[in-house]
Amino acid sequence: MADEEVCPVCHDPLGDAPKAVQTLCGHIYCADCLLEWLQQAKRCPLCNAE
């Protein structure tokens, strides 16, 4: 079974996400998860890049 990429915030498979987005630092998230995160903190949830 191949490893499937998952959103680091919600852990859902990115293939199931209606829209996936990539940050400038290269991490990929569900669009909804990243937008919600960025309302609280203006940095990447994984590496803290601004």
TrEMBL record:
Keyword Phosphoprotein among record annotations: no
Q: Which InterPro entries match?
A: RNF4, Znf_RING, Znf_RING/FYVE/PHD, Znf_RING_CS
Top-level taxon of the source organism: Eukaryota
Q: Which residue numbers delimit the RING-type domain?
A: 7-48
As one GO molecular function, the record gives:
zinc ion binding
> Keyword annotations for this protein?
Metal-binding, Zinc, Zinc-finger
Show which residues constitute the signal peptide.
none
PROSITE patterns given in the database record: ZF_RING_1, ZF_RING_2
Q: Pfam families per the record?
A: zf-RING_2
What's this protein's name?
Answer: RING-type domain-containing protein
